[in-house]
């Protein structure tokens, strides 16, 4: 069988017909398999069509293709968009990727004019443009989701500005705090996450389109026009950089990874708080599951999955960093492996953010359990030490030592600090007066923490007002 015949025998169109002018044989089956990215990059169809329309319009207005061909291309691309949206488009693995699938269909629809669309363009600048547009949309969705989650936390903070809970260090009771203050800690964290996504978006927003394969083009294109049409701030200044840059994807994954860390920490808290021994919160039916064996169970599955999905997001970051780290300029096919990790990470992140917003919005706070736990563990010991400093003018180190011995006495009696009698305490420091009891109560403890950024309910209320304004 002649080589020629092997090439033409295929019943399906293949990309090698599109780029294979110099080849005498079609690709090996396994080559086609490793080369094909359509199963993944079909997600870029909307961006690919938008970028092609901008390119075609520019080619026509620059007189590089005729107005008539420009119109035909645009109409054809609109048809393809509808076909993909309504599910009638047939994606072909033999056509390798989304760009070739769309171009092949365009040829079926409009004939020769389709072949003019790729003038002054390469798949290298095309894919970089499409992917940037996709990532930009993902960043915008993440921002909306995070803002929504901040609002859910803010609403809980508003209801519980003065609800007392144990504040922990080392997961040991440390000092009482307000639940509102705890919620607002996450509002702060998520705001930094939004800032990182915003930074990534602003650096991302330069158009690679028109960089060509790597060197630019000899056609009189207008890169400023295509950049503006696609909502970019400007065209990227260096064609080599334009086609080989994936920083925008990496920065987005970095932001996603840090967000995932925050969500995972919050998930961990929800899991602990909703456990029987804590009982601080009850997650709603909508975000928990039962056990097939133990009828009493209400499992925090959504929180556990948020905690676990962090792994996929970290993995995506490592995966793309590893793909990129050894690549010389400009494009290498390695870079085709950039999308799957990003798509998966973005999907995991979006689900996690939405699930977290649902759990936070729906959960019930068990105030009594929180306050009872806040009273355990001698959590106002620091208040006692501070009283010794403030009222008796003790050096803090001495006050710390005296308080430690009073705590040991309470522990021996198995009672709270405020249950010790005055004479019990005076055994360790004769100067202590009745006035000390005022600082041993939970409520006084939290109300006294009025330093900037402290947990006092009045501080929390001011912060809530500030956030309401910012998130409105
Ligand atoms: N499917 C390819 C990708 O995602 C498109 C770019 C192909 N460019 C090339 N020179 N083979 O990277």
Account of the protein in words:
The structure is a single chain. This protein has 472 residues and is mainly α. It is 62% helix and 4% strand. The protein is built from 21 helices and six strands. Strand 3, helix 10 (223-229) and strand 4 (234-235) form a beta-alpha-beta unit. The radius of gyration is 31 Å and the shape is elongated. 42% of the residues are buried. The model is unreliable at 1-11 (pLDDT under 50). Arginine (ARG) is lined by residues 37, 41, 97, 123-124, 127, 331, 333, 335-336.
The computed structural class is mainly alpha
CA-based gyration radius = 31 Å
Q: Going across the major beta sheet, what is the strand order?
A: 1-2
Categorize the overall geometry: elongated
First and last CA, distance:
72 Å
Task: Give helix and strand order, one letter per element, not per position.
Answer: HHHHHHHHEEHEHEHHEHHEHHHHHHH
Report helical residue fraction: 55-70%
What can be said about the biggest beta sheet? 2 strands, antiparallel
Number of helices: 21
| Overall number of strands | 6
Low-confidence spans: pLDDT under 50, at least 5 residues? 1-11
Percent of sequence in beta strands: under 5%
Give average pLDDT, whole number: 94
Bound molecules: arginine
What labels would you give this structure?
472 residues; mainly alpha; two-stranded parallel ribbon; binds arginine
């Amino acid at each position: 069988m002649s080589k020629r015949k092997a090439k033409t025998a295929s019943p399906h169109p293949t990309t090698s017909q599109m780029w294979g002018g110099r080849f005498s044989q079609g690709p090996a089956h396994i080559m086609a398999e490793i080369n094909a990215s359509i199963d993944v990059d079909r997600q870029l169809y909307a961006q690919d069509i938008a970028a092609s329309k901008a390119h075609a319009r520019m080619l026509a207005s620059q007189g590089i293709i005729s107005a008539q061909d420009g119109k035909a291309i645009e109409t054809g691309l609109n048809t393809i968009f509808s076909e993909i949206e309504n599910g009638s488009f047939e994606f072909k693995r033999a056509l390798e990727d989304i760009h070739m699938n769309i171009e092949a269909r365009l040829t079926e629809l409009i004939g020769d004019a389709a072949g003019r669309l790729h003038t002054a363009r390469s798949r290298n600048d095309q894919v970089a443009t499409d992917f940037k547009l996709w990532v930009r949309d993902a960043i915008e969705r993440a921002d909306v989701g995070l803002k929504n989650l901040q609002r859910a936390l803010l609403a809980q903070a508003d209801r519980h500005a003065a609800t007392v809970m144990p504040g922990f260090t080392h997961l040991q009771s440390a000092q009482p705090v307000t639940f509102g203050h705890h919620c607002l800690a996450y509002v702060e964290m998520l705001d930094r996450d939004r800032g990182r996504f915003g930074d990534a978006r602003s650096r991302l927003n330069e158009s690679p389109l028109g960089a060509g394969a790597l060197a630019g083009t000899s056609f009189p294109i207008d890169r400023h026009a295509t950049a503006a049409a696609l909502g970019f701030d400007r065209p990227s200044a260096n064609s080599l950089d334009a086609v080989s840059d994936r920083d925008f994807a990496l920065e987005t994954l970095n932001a996603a990874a840090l967000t995932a860390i925050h969500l995972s920490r919050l998930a961990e808290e929800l899991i602990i708080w909703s456990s029987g021994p804590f009982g601080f919160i009850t997650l709603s039916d909508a975000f928990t599951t039962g056990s097939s064996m133990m009828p009493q169970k209400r499992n925090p599955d959504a929180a556990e999955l948020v905690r676990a999905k962090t792994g996929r997001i970290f993995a995506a970051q490592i995966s793309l960093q590893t793909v990129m780290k050894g690549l010389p300029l400009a494009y290498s096919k390695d870079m085709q492996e950039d999308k799957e990790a990003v798509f998966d990470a973005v999907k995991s992140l979006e689900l996690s953010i939405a699930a977290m917003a649902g759990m936070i919005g729906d959960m019930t706070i068990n105030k009594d359990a929180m306050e009872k736990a806040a009273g355990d563990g001698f959590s106002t010991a620091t208040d006692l030490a501070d009283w010794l400093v403030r009222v008796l003018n003790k050096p803090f180190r001495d006050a710390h030592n005296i308080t430690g011995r009073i705590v040991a006495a309470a522990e021996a009696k198995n009672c709270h600090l405020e249950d010790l009698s005055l004479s019990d305490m005076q055994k360790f420091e004769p100067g202590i007066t009745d006035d000390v009891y005022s600082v041993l109560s939970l409520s006084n403890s939290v109300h006294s923490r009025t330093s900037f950024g402290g947990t006092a309910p009045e501080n929390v209320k001011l912060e809530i007002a500030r956030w309401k304004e910012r998130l409105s």
